[in-house]
């Protein structure tokens, strides 16, 4: 069985991420979705906690029937690139392939002997967490950019939209 790894911050999990998961699952039997920067929350760049992001990802994957072949794992940052791959290896189940667009992530895993593959962009100017967070802050419509379950969770369950607006207001 071939298991892949897909690292990201997922702040929030959007339809571009979902498309990468679908694409990766065409290439592996199972996929570990690695929730990076797990220690970060309540900032403009990282407004959601690791637990909230895990919930979002699980809900989105279940909504699209992709939850049976995925494992979601959080990981805190290590501020030394040379040991990051080892840090990942001790926190996730064994994997053989890495899917990422970040050149540094690809380089680190390639140097560690992993097969790496860069997923295609899925309408990046639309499906982009930075843009989605901006839309939330300024009150523009972002509901079509994330799975319905993720939108509902952010707005109705954790009031993440209000949190992000508060954080943005306190940064001024």
UniProtKB/TrEMBL annotation:
Q: Where in the cell is it found?
A: Cytoplasm
| Record Pfam families | CTP_transf_like (PF01467)
Output the Gene Ontology terms for molecular function: ATP binding; nicotinamide-nucleotide adenylyltransferase activity
- Do you know which InterPro entries this protein is assigned to? Cyt_trans-like, NMN_Atrans_arc, Rossmann-like_a/b/a_fold
Annotated Gene Ontology cellular component terms: cytoplasm
Q: Which Gene3D superfamilies does the UniProt entry name for this protein?
A: HUPs
- Keywords recorded for this protein, A-Z: ATP-binding, Cytoplasm, NAD, Nucleotide-binding, Nucleotidyltransferase, Pyridine nucleotide biosynthesis, Transferase
- Cytidyltransferase-like domain residues: 5-134
User: What is the catalytic activity of this protein?
Assistant: beta-nicotinamide D-ribonucleotide + ATP + H(+) = diphosphate + NAD(+)
**Chief localization:** cytoplasm
Q: Which biological pathway?
A: Cofactor biosynthesis; NAD(+) biosynthesis; NAD(+) from nicotinamide D-ribonucleotide: step 1/1
The EC number of this protein is 2.7.7.1
| One of the protein's GO biological processes | NAD+ biosynthetic process
Signal sequence interval, chain numbering:
none
Q: Which family does it belong to?
A: Belongs to the archaeal NMN adenylyltransferase family.
| Entry-linked NCBIfam families | arch_NMN_Atrans (TIGR01527), cyt_tran_rel (TIGR00125), PRK01153.1 (NF002243)
Name it.
Nicotinamide-nucleotide adenylyltransferase
């Amino acid at each position: 069985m071939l298991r892949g790894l897909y690292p990201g911050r997922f702040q929030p999990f959007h339809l571009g991420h979902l498309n990468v998961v679908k694409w990766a699952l065409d290439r592996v039997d199972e996929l570990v979705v690695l929730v990076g920067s797990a220690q970060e929350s309540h900032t403009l760049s990282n407004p959601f906690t690791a637990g909230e992001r895990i919930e979002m990802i699980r809900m989105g994957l279940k909504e699209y029937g992709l939850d049976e072949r995925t494992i979601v794992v959080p990981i805190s940052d290590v501020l030394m690139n040379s040991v990051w791959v080892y840090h990942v290896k001790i926190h996730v189940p064994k994997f053989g392939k890495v899917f990422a667009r970040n050149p540094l992530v690809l380089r680190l895993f390639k140097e560690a002997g992993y097969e790496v593959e860069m997923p295609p962009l899925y309408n990046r100017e639309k499906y982009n967490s930075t843009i989605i967070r901006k839309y939330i802050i300024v009150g523009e419509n972002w509901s079509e950019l994330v799975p319905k379950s993720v939108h509902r969770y952010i707005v109705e369950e954790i009031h993440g939209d209000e949190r992000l607006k508060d954080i943005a207001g306190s940064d001024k």
